[in-house]
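SAMPLE LOG
Freezer: B-3
Tube label: C17
Construct: single chain, 241 aa
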Amino acid sequence: MMNKMKDLLINNKFVKIGELVLIFIIAFGFIKIFTPLAGDNIVHKQIVIWFANILMLIYVWIGIKLRDQKLTYFGLSFGKITLKECFKTILISIGVFIAAVAAFIIGSIIMANITGIPESSDLSNYEYLQNNISMLIITLIGTYIVASFGEEVIYRGFIINRLIELGLNSKLGKNLAIIISAVIFGLVHYQWGPMGIVQTGFMGAVLGYFYLKLKKRIWILVLAHGYMDTILMIQVYLSNN
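STRUCTURE (predicted):
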């Protein structure tokens, strides 16, 4: 039974497509069911989204295990940990972060010029952070684990690799995989409004590019993503001061 499932996941394109679709059906189904239970409490709503991301990570892990793949396939590995290597990783992650911020800003400028929408995302779901240092710290910890790490594994590691397995393994195909993953990444941030969708979409394209350019060194992207989330969260925290 397990061998048959493994064979289907590796060789059957329809099963692969189904795997890509099912992960979002599960996540959005979970959000649809449990968000109403959170009522008007935006903290509880955020927790629901975090748990949806955790479900997606479990789903990704199951797919890896069923294929007998290793976590290194997505770049989830540690090389030789030395002070020099840590410094190099942080330095590269800062460069990726700067590129991602530039893409984020370019996306907002393009969107604003086309539609006239103000150059800001709708971050009202994070209003609970305003003047609340304890919630800021808790949210940042959760964000690094669930969003920065989780989203890089899901939208760069999982989606890009599975799309490449579907036949997008040429240079053009890989670029298309990056674009598709970026579009999906933008759309799942629909709660940030139209501007947020475009901003995160552009950001996702840059992160996807560096994911393949840096030979799947996903920890660099996790750090860069974390820096971005940290700035956004601190921005909300200070917005009412």
